[in-house]
Amino acid sequence: MTKFPAWKYFIILCAVVIGLLYTLPNFYGEVPAVQISGSRSSVVVDSNTISQVTASLKADNLNPIGEIFDGKTLKFKFATTDNQLKARDVIQQTLGDSYIVALNLISASPDWLSSINANPMFLGLDLRGGVHFLLEVDMDAAVKKTLNKNVGDIRRDLRNNSIRYGSVTVDNGSVLIQLRDEATTELVMQQLNKDFPKMQAVRDGATNIRIVLSAEEMQLIKEAAVKQNILTLHNRVNELGVAEPIIQQQGPDRIVVELPGVQDTAHAKDILGRTATLEVRMVDDDAGALSQAQGGNVPVNDQLLDEINSDGSTSKILVRNDVELTGDNINDAQAGFDENGSPAVNISLDSTGAAIFKQVTADNIGKRMAMVLVDHGKSQVVTAPVIRTQIGGGQVQISGAMSVQDANDVSLLLRSGSLAAPMNIIEERTVGPSLGQENINKGFHSVLWGFLAIAVFMCVYYLAFGVASVVSLGVNLLLLVALLSMLQATLTLPGIAAIALALGMAIDSNVLINERIREELRNGQKPHAAIESGYAHAWATILDSNVTTLIAGLALLAFGSGPVKGFAVVHCLGILTSMFSAVVVSRGIAAILYANKRIKKLHI
Amino acid sequence: MEFFKIKKDIPFMSYGKLTTSISLLTFILAIFFLITRGLNLSVEFTGGTLMEVQYTQAANLDQIRGDLDKMGLDQATVQVYGSSKNIMLRLPNKQGTNSATLSNNVFQHLKSTAPDVTLKSVEFIGPQVGRDLVNNGLMAITFVCIGIMIYLALRFEWRFAVSAIVANMHDVVIILGCFAAFQWEFSLTVLAAILAVLGYSVNESVVVFDRIRENFRTIRGGTVPQIINNAITATMSRTIITHGCTEMMVLSMLFFGGPSLHYFALALTIGILFGVYSSVLVASPIVMWLGVSRENLVKAPKRKDEAVV
Predict the structure, then answer these.
(1) Radius of gyration of chain A measured on its C-alpha atoms
(2) Does residue A230 fall inside a structural domain?
(3) What is the sign of the dihedral through the CA atoms of A416, A417, A420 and A423?
(4) Residue A167: in which H helix or E strand, if any?
(5) Containing H/E element for A395?
(6) Per-window interface: B 117-136 vs A, CB < 8 A
(7) Suppose A102 and one of A243, A452, A483, B37 were both cysteines; which one would form an S-S bond, judging by CB atoms 3.0 to 4.6 Å apart?
(8) How many domains does chain A have?
């Protein structure tokens, strides 16, 4: 009677041990840390970097209390925030700009816990402070940009083939070509089909041709625009030195940016909305002028800039002030190979850019040309190749001492230098760090006092079974926190409210069971039989009521966004853990209390 | 210890007309407030900017309003939030202005007149987002209702499904009515609370229904009202204790959770109170009037009996 099989005890034991292990990291708190990662894919953090940084930290007497290296990012823990701030400056100086050095807070839990992936719960922005942006990409502008590009290409093509045209314009979401007579129209149709086979040109009246973008093309343009904007945002956020940024697409045309820990929102907004540009300028190769400039005497028409070398280091280069071409004239940049099979970057310029480039290269054969990336008021020379021949046609190839990785990086930088289409911030949430801590405290106190009130009441009202209920409720809390830590689901203030509510609702199952046992006793059942049938009868009801609650939880999960989603995740998980703890765990405790004993009176 | 030692069944069903009339009256009242006053929707739904700033001393509201007027933001509302040092600013969306930079400008302005001000939080919601949220909220409520009805119809019978939903929608409308009547702020978190209550108070009906079904099996010869009365009386102790416990947790949030959880807890409190009332005193009479009978619920065991015979 009141038997409880050993394997169920084993399951409970396993659940509690795993629960304890994964809940544990939440108690250790956080320590200040500095996080180092490469700003480009060619810049890697390796053992060399580690020893370099360790040496410079030692030289400044900033001894880290721990280091974590996961193959990509290197984290140093520090005892005080003061040391952390000093260390950041030291590391940034040692490694230079090709590494992102960011401040972070990481768990102070011991390494063996981290090694089994036991990490503290992932706190949302409302609990740890930071900025959340929802940006909407202006798709009309992205489409318009493509149309304008097509107009330029067509004009150039017709001109090159000496075909006289009335006008080529963007008209009502398509390109309209107006011609003088029907014969020319026929000729242009043939020409377009030959040179631009991808474009869908149709006759629109006797002397007009209209090129409409197909639905798929439109789709491609939009997808590419969002993708490129995300890339650009990634680059910009890297510059902000944010430890764990989140940049994700949401829906067809929206992008979420979350920057935990960023306080200066004005600065963040500025960086995100910025348009970086590429400038093509000529290099001043006068060796004397360079050494003079390095001595502080820069020639009037020149500027001394950093050039990024293939190994990530920088050297000085003297560049003319005159800007020959800007990034606005770049349509695309892709990594590829040159005729010798070495890595290269292929840039395609628009018609204006092509014309200018042709002229510039014709005038400067044998000289060096610098590709300058101007970002946030800071100019850097990405590459400075020697011009060998005149380059026409708008297809520019940059090759030199670069690896495949470099070619990818440079093309990415050129591409992501500017946004494909403007974006608008349509949602913003900023939470100060003090408010985050306040929210944690408030949430914690709500759960604590609510739990205590229920615990006291249950123990007084149901005596021994009350204690069993409270213990199982405690296990419920433990499992829920462990599950949240394990899944690394984002915990927000509504999430904490959901924890509290989950506990408040979970007690229902125990009350059902206890009331049922009392009733069975009143009906004259023997204690053991009463426990047995109490649990058995209550189970069906518990299942029914939890399923209905779960339906509501799933609806919240499916249709909720932002704070509601945070609530829903915890709510659903809480229902699952409560079913386990209320039925299995409390039954186990009752069995421990009463199994194999002769009971005269149940304490309930 | 035991609060409820009830020997005789309480004749709840004979009060059925009275209790449902009371419900109907509150329901109509709630609708009345919803129509005349409407919900005080939060920035999340309407779009706009919400700023929370903190001063080291009690804030000078007139000065803040003056600052905003100077910026041409005379539609802004300024409110004390929590304590006299915390101020909540609400700035409606304006066409043609860049809303993202608005909060920056306002804060710079406030700082120039009172340097001790710190920015605690900013929430800016564009009009596009608000529309999506309203749609999603309505979708969620519809989904929950349909899901629960299907489950109850499968597990019990359509009569139970219908009466449970009627009872629970009545709770939702009354919560909304309270929020309209007192012009409490209706935010996304409140919406989450309402949906949680919807799932939770269906529980209540489920527990009673479960007992009704069981009674149909075990109590032979009882009339339908007798059986329902017995079911409600037997589960009453559990109902009160459970909801008392849940309410303790909710009150804890109301007292310790601060302003952000205030309305969440308030919605839950109303939901729990009316949830108990409606699932016992509204859902059960409706089940009775819909003509529930033993045959509706205990088909399966009967067939078994016949097989044995």
Answers:
(1) 33
(2) no
(3) positive
(4) strand A167-171
(5) strand A395-399
(6) 118-126, 128-129, 132-133, 136
(7) A243
(8) 4
d(C-alpha A411, C-alpha A397), whole Å: 11
With 60 as the cut, is the pLDDT of residue A2 above it?
Answer: no
CB A541 to CB B206 under 8 A? yes
Are the Cβ atoms of A561 and B132 closer than 8 angstroms? yes
From chain A residues 262-301, the ones with a CB under 8 A of any chain B CB are 265-266, 269, 273
For residues A474 and A345, membership in a common domain is answered with: no
Q: Which tens digit of pLDDT belongs to each residue from B146-176?
A: 988 898 898 888 999 999 888 888 899 999 9
Cβ contact A548–B241 (<8 Å): no
- The whole-angstrom distance between residue A328's C-alpha and the CA centroid of its chain comes to 27
Q: Are residues A195 and A148 in the same domain?
A: yes
Query: Residue A356 carries which side chain, given as an amino acid letter?
Result: I
* Residue among B198, B219, B165, B206 nearest A538 (CA): B206
Looking only at the bridges linking them, the beta strands covering A378-383 and A302-308 are parallel
Question: Which chain B residue has the Cα nearest residue A553?
Answer: B196
What is the CATH code of the structural domain delimited by B12-41+129-308?
Answer: 1.20.1640.10
Report, as an integer, the average pLDDT of A205-219. 86
pLDDT of residue A473: 94
Q: Is the pLDDT of residue A9 over 50?
A: yes
Test the B interface: residue of A458, A517, A551, A561 with most B CBs within 10 Å: A551
Arithmetic mean of pLDDT, A144-166: 79
Q: pLDDT class for A442, splitting at 50, 70, 90? A: very high
Those of residues 228-257 in B touching chain A at CB distance below 8 A are 234-235, 237-238, 241-242, 244-253, 255-257
Nearest to A428 among B100, B141, B198 (CB): B100
pLDDT at B303: 42
Report which of A347, A344, A349, A346 is spatially closest to residue A328, judged by C-alpha positions: A349
For strand B185-186 and strand B40-41, is the pairing parallel, antiparallel, or unpaired?
parallel
Strand order through the sheet with A174-178? A167-171, A174-178, A208-212, A200-203
Which H or E element spans position B68?
A: helix B61-70
**Which residues touch A601 (CB under 8 Å, ≥6 apart)?**
A527
Q: Which of B77, B15, B89 is nearest to B50 (CA)?
A: B89
Here the ipTM equals 0.87
For the segment A278-319, what is each residue's pLDDT rounded down to a tens digit? 678 888 888 788 888 888 788 877 888 888 776 667 788 888
pLDDT at residue number B307:
42
Characterize the bridge pairing of strands A74-77 and A369-375. Answer: unpaired
pLDDT of A525 reads 87
- Within a domain: A454: yes
- pTM exceeds cut of 0.95: no
Highest averaged pLDDT of the listed ranges A59-73, A343-357, B149-163:
B149-163
Distance from CA of A27 to the nearest CA of B (A): 21
Asked if the model's pLDDT at residue B309 lies above 50, the reply is no
Residue B15 CB contacts under 8 Å (≥ 6 apart), including other chains: B281
Q: Return residues 10-29 of B near A (CB < 8 Å).
A: none
A55 inside domain: yes
Query: Which CATH topology does B48-125 take?
Result: Alpha-Beta Plaits (3.30.70)
Outline which parts of chain B fall under CATH 3.30.70.3400: 48-125
Whole-angstrom Cα distance, residue A238 to residue A254? 20
pLDDT in the model for residue A229: 85
Number of H helices, E strands in chain A: 17, 22
Is the pLDDT at B304 greater than 60? The verdict is no
Q: At what angle do helices B258-281 and A493-522 cross, to 10 degrees?
A: 30
Same domain, yes or no, for A159 and A305?
Answer: no
Burial bucket for residue A272 (CB in 10 Å: 0-12, 13-18, 19+): buried
State which residues form the domain around A145.
140-216
